[in-house]
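Lecture notes, unit on protein representations.

Consider one protein chain, 529 amino acids long.
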Amino acid sequence: MRTLKPLLCTLMASLLAMPSPILAASHREAPITSLDRTADITDFYAFVSYDDPSKVTMILNVDPFLEPGNGPNYFPFDDTILYQIHVDNNNTATDGVVFNIQFTTEIRAPQVFTGFVGAGTGIPAPANSPAPVAPGTPIVPAAITALDGAGSGGLSLRQKYSVSMTKNGVTTQLTSPSGSTLFAVPSNVGPRTMPNYPALAAQGIYNLGNGVRAFAGTVDDPFYIDLGAAFDSLNFRTAAGGGVLSAAADAADNVNTAPDFVSGFNVNTIALEVPISMLTRTGNQPQASDPAATLGFWGTTSRPRITVRRSPLPAAPTGSYTQVQRMGNPLINELIIGTGSKDYWSMTQPVNDSQFASFDLDPLLARVLNAVYGINIPAPPRTDLLPLVTYAAPIAAAGTPAGPVADLLRLNTAVPPTPAASRKRLGVLAGDFGGFPNGRRVSDDVTDIAARAVAGVLCGVTAPCKDSTGAAFLGTSVPRIGDGVNTNDVPYQETFPYVAFAQSGRNRRHVDPGEAGCSPNSTTACPTN
C-alpha cells in the first residue's frame, strides 16, 4: 500500500496537469454549465498587479460568448448565484481566505421594452405624435453617462453587489469608505445610448478601503484561441504545418496568424485587487524565498438547492448553497475528466482531487498530438508535470510544503510583475516568471503553453523523462506547437481591472477565417486552412 501512494500522486499529477487546448479555457466545458451558462466559469486569473507589486489582482470570468448586441435583456449577473474566490495560504488545498460576491437586480423602468435606452439630451415626442401622447412629452431619456444619479435615467436594468471576506472564520463586509453603493457596469449597448462607454465603465472601479479595489460588469472576453481549428481534431492553421509555428510566428507575441474565434465577444467579470499581506498566513508580504509567498487560488459558483421562480415576484431561493462550478488552472475539466464525471468534478473540492486519478495513467492529449502530428512524446509516468499541481519549484520556494495534489492556480506573490515591454505570452516557458504557470495574467497564451507542457517541454527541467524506447526525453525536443493566435483582438489595460472594457453592441466585429484583420489593427487576411 505504501508503494501505491507515490504512484497515485504521480498519476494524479498527470491527470490534473494536463490542460487542453481543445476548449476555450472552460467555456462550456461540462454538461451542467452548458445548460447553466451564468454559473459557467470561463476563466480565472491571479497575478501580481502590474503597477503595484504589493497587491494581487484576482479575476473571475463567467457566462461565455456574450454577443454584445444581444438585447433586450443583455447579460446581468445571476442574483441567485454566490460567486467566490478562494485562497489557500497554508498549503492544504483548502481556503484560508474567501471572497464572497453577490448581486441584486433592479428594473427601474419596468414599462420600457429594453434594459438600456438613451440618446443625447433626450428625445421628446415629435409634432406628429399620435394621441394620447402629446408633442413634447419625453420619450427617450438622455444618454447614459453615469451608473447612478444624473445621467443614469436610461439605465433601467441595474445591478448592485456586495463583497465580503472570510478569513480565519471571521466574515467582514468590504464597503466603500465613502459609503458608495457598488454598481455592476452594464453591457456596452452602443454609441447613441452610451456615448462615452470607457468613462462610464471606469465609474465601476471602487475603493473598498485598506487597499482593496473592486470591479464587476460586462467586459471584452480576454481569452483568445482558434477554437474552430482546435475542435477540428487539432487542425491548426500553421504555416510550417504539423501544428507547429514558424520561428517568426512564434516570436511575434502581438501578431496573429490565425483567426481569434473569441474576438468580438464579451464576458461578465468580477475583479478584486487585494494587498498581498491580507492574503498570506503571516500577514505580511514575504520574500520570494519564503515558503509563505506562494498561494493557491481558485474560483467557484454556487446556487441554493431550491429556487422557485414566481414572476412577476422575484425568484425565491431556499436551502444551503451547493457548488456548480470551480476553476483553478485553465483548461482542466474539458478533456481529462470523462463526460460522465465532469459535473461531479465541478462540484467537488480541490483537496479531494485524488479521487479522479483513475482517469489518466498517461496524458491522452499527448497521445493525440503524437497521433495527429507524429511528434515524439514522453512515456508515462509524467512526473515532469508535478509542479503544476503541487507547491513545488520553480514556482514555490524551497521548503514549501507540497500539499495534496490539487487543481489550484499557484502564484509566488513575491515575484515582481514583468514590465509590459518585456512581457512574454508564453510566460515561464519564455523565461518570464511573472506569467503562467506562476499565476495567470490576462495576456498569457495558455493554449500554446498547455499544449507544449503536455508534449513534454518541462522534461529535464522539473523531472527526467523517457521516450518510447527508454532513452532520455528532453523538453528542448518539443516543437513550437501552437494555434497561431498570439494576442487578443483588442488591447488590454495596464491598470486595474486590466481587462478591456466591453465591446460595442452596435459596432463589434468577429474575425472569421478568410477575412482581413487577423491581427489587431492589421489588414492581414486570416487563413482558412
